[in-house]
């Protein structure tokens, strides 16, 4: 399948490159954040990181496709919406940044046009997961790649995880290598830079994951989870490896129940999770999940379950290396 798939992708991109398929430019700066691979590079934490950096100087908006939502078309995301209506990632962003305009739309041009009609004060738009959505011409394109799954070592679907060939990294203005170890050595960074230079002349930066304090989301008493707690970790994300490793470094025993990315939890799933939790013999125990998963999971738990089971979310942030240089480089293109 890779050969015919790559031919289709090649033709599509050439049609954009030669102007047969047109890209629309807008009168305000637009930053695209995306990846060559099929998920798992940390786009949502990166979007939230950029929101934190620019929220004091810009009137920001985020436009996402709203992947896996059960509706279609343009929709502004409100705090009263749920993941079925707008998608889990846009819902998470809105919850974390309630004053930021967040919208979803499959067609990015239509989405931007409608977004600007709704809020004429917006002067910077972040496009989430938009590297392949070429009908919009961004002012700045940021390509993310997981340090442990670099696009330089990957192959096209279905043999690998790439949505398009490695050579298409040339469209990026900046490449950020995500999920790095905090102590990543300079020689390793230089090797990664050299590998990326085979496909892109973009500036290369590095980032790592930073786990914040656990947040209680059930209706039980908030207790300090000490290292003797037994944890049931529940995830439906593209790559839970980093979270599980982190939790195992904090707690005595961690059991992991893993679902596919954007998994739609059912009452039956929750009943099985509750049963797994109740079967943990240890007195000190809790469920920990991701904020993204909680956006989908929260309405499936019953009131009784929420009142009896301690459930926490583990927030995660992006920590940028050489942050000042990175932000200044972006700022030059979004004035």
Task: Give a structural overview.
The protein is of the alpha/beta class. The protein has eleven helices and 14 strands. The protein has helices spanning 2-17, 43-54, 83-86, 88-96, 108-118, 186-197, 241-250, 267-278, 291-297, 303-308, 323-331; strands spanning 30-35, 60-64, 75-76, 101-104, 124-128, 140-146, 174-178, 203-211, 215-216, 230-235, 253-258, 285-289, 311-313, 316-320. The strands form two sheets. It has a nine-stranded mixed sheet with strand order 3-4-2-5-1-6-7-8-14, with helices on both faces. Strands 9-13-12-10-11 form a five-stranded mixed sheet, with helices on both faces. Helix 4 (88-96) packs across helix 9 (291-297). The radius of gyration is 21 Å and the shape is globular. 38% of the residues are buried.
Strands, helices and their partners?
Elements: H1 2-17, E1 30-35, H2 43-54, E2 60-64, E3 75-76, H3 83-86, H4 88-96, E4 101-104, H5 108-118, E5 124-128, E6 140-146, E7 174-178, H6 186-197, E8 203-211, E9 215-216, E10 230-235, H7 241-250, E11 253-258, H8 267-278, E12 285-289, H9 291-297, H10 303-308, E13 311-313, E14 316-320, H11 323-331
Parallel strand pairs: 1-5, 1-6, 2-4, 2-5, 6-7, 7-8, 10-11, 10-12, 12-13
Antiparallel strand pairs: 3-4, 8-14, 9-13
